[in-house]
Amino acid sequence: MKTTTVLAPTQTSSFYQVKPKDLDKEFGELQRMAEADVKFQAGLEPNNVHPQVVYTGYSGGQYADTALSSRIDALVFEPKNTKVHFIVTGHGSPGVQGKIGMGDVAVFDHRLTAAEFVQVLSDAGIKRLKKLDLHFTFRCCNSAYVPLAQWNQDLQKANLSIANDSLIGAFSRSMSRTQRLDVTVIGFRGYYFPDVKGPKLGGKGGKKKFPLADGEVTIKHNGEVEFTDWAKHVKIQDSGLDSLFA
Fold it and tell me: Which of 33, 146, 186, 229 lies at 20 to 30 Å from 93 by C-alpha?
């Protein structure tokens, strides 16, 4: 069984009954992003990546809204403590009220908050995977972003801020509180830029780019925050987003 799955967050098809003009365009962009992530991840994990993007709801008419629940149906038979990895792909915005998914959030609310995304997972039966070692990687812009300059490189306070104030922190707490699931969540500081040699991170405009690992943050299943490299992490500048945390 292939235990890594690329998830593309979308609302249920019924949400889009009044179809905005830009829906096909925005869905097409999300589709390209997610399919590229399937290929990229397959290079990192040969023979362990589910070959199709799994949309959490609307899927441009290619698959049914039941794609996620069907994937969970298949994974539920994995042995206890098997690592199951969901890579969440889409556009992202930072913070507890940040959103992930398709489209320009300022034009039409295509995206989901962390709490809404957890509800979608719940409706699909994510609790059925309770016995497994669940990992979620948010491969989108600023999923672990919080302002760091104010902490003067105080690691303990930075950890607390990420756990409390970031998009991945909101997701981790919601999974624990509403689903009683302790999951490992990975996110990134900085804007996410695709690249033929692998995605990179950068500040606004992408003039200076960094390897993904430099901006990677993990919130472990016990709530502990871990940086791949703190010294490199803080070099990814605050990206003009601090007003969202005021």
Answer: 229
